[in-house]
Amino acid sequence: MTKARIDARFAALKAEGRAAFVTYVMAGDPDAATALEIVRGLPGAGADIIELGFPFSDPLAEGPPIQRAAQRALAKGMTLQGVLDLARAFREGDADTPVILMGYTNPLLTWGYEAFARDAAAAGIDGMIVVDCPPEEAEPLADALDAAGLSLIRLATPTTDDARLPVVIRRTSGFVYYVSVAGVTGVKSADAAAVAPHVERVRKASGLPVAVGFGIKTPENAAAIARVADGVVVGSALVDEVAEALELNEDVTGRVLSKVNSLAKAVRLARRSLTAV
Amino acid sequence: MTPPAASRELIVNAPTRPNDYTAYPDASGRFGDYGGRYVPETLMPLVHELDAAYRAAKADPAFQAELDSFLTHYVGRPSPLYLASRLTDHFGGAKIYFKREELNHTGSHKINNCMGQILLARRMGKTRIIAETGAGQHGVASATVCARFGLPCIVYMGAVDVERQKPNVFRMNLLGARVEAVTSGSATLKDAMNEALRDWVTNVHDTYYLIGTAAGMHPYPEMVRDFQSVIGRETRDQMLAMEGRLPDAVVACVGGGSNAIGIFHPFLNDESVKLIGIEAAGEGMDTGRHAAAINGGRPGVLHGNMTYLLQDRAGQITEAHSISAGLDYPGIGPEHSWLHDVGRASYLTATDNESLEAFKLCAQLEGILPAIETAHALARIGDIARDVGKGGIIVLNLSGRGDKDVGTVAAHLGMQI
Ligand SMILES: Cc1ncc(COP(=O)(O)O)c(C=O)c1O
Q1: Phi, psi angle pair for A40, to nearest 5°
Q2: Which of A172, B122, B142, B282 is 20–30 Å from B134 (CA)?
């Protein structure tokens, strides 16, 4: 399965003529049970691909929203084992939606790359994004993921020039994640016009779909990116909904899913309104 | 399905003692299995750019000449090598020498590295300097060189450290730097480093990250070591001039490890010279509240490098605890991890209380207020002097002065000042 699930999803959406809507939520935020409820609700609310953050104590590429989400999850005892349990429980009810784990090296290293890749594949995970493991350090990880049939999804960024791009996309499969801004998650906002040529460049070089993330918060923003990219990733804006619901003592799942809903609509209608213009 | 306590990847290759200890790191920034460049992709091109710029500077005699001139006339080098005769008599063992890094401009060894890196930043055309600091010594040294060269300086400092090192915060402000109090995580040095890295990832074009210790991603551990090695080179020459032979042991406190590697490195291939680093044992190794990465941690990845780290079974980084803000860090530079594994250096510990005692003893017998970081090394110097024995010679890197710590020391002695 695994890699195949990601490829099948992008192929189906391409046939539909629209971009994928990729939602990032933190496993265990605000607690394991609610996070599972949220993840189970994501496809129904319009998510095409699920990125599941696994918490790390020192997430150095994250802005305050995801930092705090990781801290909430860790405070509630979330572990990598808990993340796999969540994925497995989700997979029992959904055979098609790709699930990608996103996080940092040290917890994986502690588990062991090979063992973790096997256990993740068995739990129904399709791919991994490891933020602080650049190509220079990722050979052992890439070998382990290959052996288990999982995709290694790499990040290309505004600092990835043409000379470096081949290094970044080597051993990448499923899709390439284009980081729309130089910065941490959830702070600067993405500019579709600035991003478009980079998406094209990465698509050409890799032959893979390109999803864009970091700094996409509003439906308008999501729609603009959906017109130029193969996927739109939203994370901090969803995690912010968790924080706000907790603060206002509201229904966390309901708040997150209704945000997903409005963003998903924008992504779905983006290219139609383009032809209508 | 329970995760194994330690991964297969972590079973490091059987460490072999190399023919030349100074031949590391390799081109990928590894000291054995330690080091590397575990940074987000956005930073990778910048790290390569820095590496290339540093190699070019290292090979350029004009760069070295400029650095030497500033070290002589601005920093005040060479620093003296001083025979601490009353402390020697007190312990009744080997002769104890102090390498007087606390006499440098700004009061610690940190300025050696800052001078080198600021000249490099200028060569690279960078116009904005960021730094992290724990005790504030590196922050002060960074603010100082930025003032000297007219560059804006932002110093990230954990909110806890801002509180316990107030005099240094004020000094940084006087020097024109902006101090950003970091409240995330444990609000100490590791979080300050996270925040500095987040700044760098956001300001990729104009910003130079001036790391203050021999840790982080390649090339920092090598570069900081090279800039601090002036300590060991001078010590070697001074010792040969004063005693006609090499010392039997060289001792230094270890936070990230820059003052230690600086004095160790020129002795690495002199295997008769014992190299001893002292980690902070905080409230005691058995309490779990310490900052001893080698003695109480295991290998992992944080802040761009593979090294010994304080972490839980699941690979989450745990908080370090030390009376000393400059040692209050859950990691250690990768070269120390490797020197430990291959057995070329050994790493002992000293508790908060032992360090406070050593602080007082040094003040009373030698008329020198040591930094509380340095006091950790002083806390083991008696044992080492007795071990080496009469007729032997040891050198302690007196990495900094203790003026910044009088408030902390007073508080622990139950006094108001
Ligand atoms: C005087 C002094 N010594 C030692 C240290 C520890 O750092 P390192 O291990 O890099 O020498 C510090 C750090 O702030 C310091 O101020």
Answers
A1: -60, -30
A2: B122
Question: Are residue B239 and residue B365 in the same domain, yes or no?
Answer: yes
Q: Are residues B354 and B386 in the same domain?
A: yes
Task: Tell me which residue range forms the domain holding B255.
Answer: 77-108+229-412
Q: Which of B101, B137, B336 to mutate to test the pocket of ligand 1 (most atoms within 8 A of CB)?
A: B137
Give chain A's domains with CATH numbers: 2-276 (3.20.20.70)
> Which chain A residue has the Cα nearest residue B314?
A107
Task: Provide the shortest C-alpha distance from residue A105 to chain B (in Å).
Answer: 7
A51 tagged catalytic: yes
Going residue by residue through chain B (417 aa), what tens digit of pLDDT does each one get?
344 444 444 445 556 788 899 999 999 999 999 999 999 999 999 999 999 999 999 999 999 999 999 999 999 999 999 999 999 999 999 999 999 999 999 999 999 999 999 999 999 999 999 999 998 999 999 999 999 999 999 999 999 999 878 889 999 999 999 999 999 888 889 999 999 999 999 999 999 999 999 999 999 999 999 999 999 999 999 999 999 999 999 999 999 999 999 999 999 999 999 999 999 999 999 999 999 999 999 999 999 999 999 999 999 999 999 999 999 999 999 999 999 999 999 999 999 999 999 999 999 999 999 999 999 999 999 999 999 999 999 999 999 999 989 988 999 888 888
Distance A124 CA to ligand 1 centre (A): 47
The DSSP result for B30-59, as a single string, is: EETTEEEEE--GGGHHHHHHHHHHHHHHHT
Within B245-292, strands assigned E span 249-253, 274-282
Q: Ligand 1 in contact with B293 (CB < 6 A)?
A: no
| Cis peptide preceding B25, ω within 30 of 0 | yes
Is-contact B366 B374, C-beta < 8 A?
A: no
Same domain, B139 and B208: yes
Q: Indicate if B83 and B182 belong to the same structural domain.
A: no
Answer yes or no: do A79 and B2 touch at CB < 8 A: no
What global pTM score does this model have? Answer: 0.95
Give chain A positions within 8 Å (CB) of B13. none
B176 phi-psi bin (left φ>0, alpha ψ -120 to 50, beta other): left
The pairing of strands B95-99 and B81-83 is antiparallel
Query: How many angstroms away from the CA of B390 is the closest CA of chain A?
Result: 46
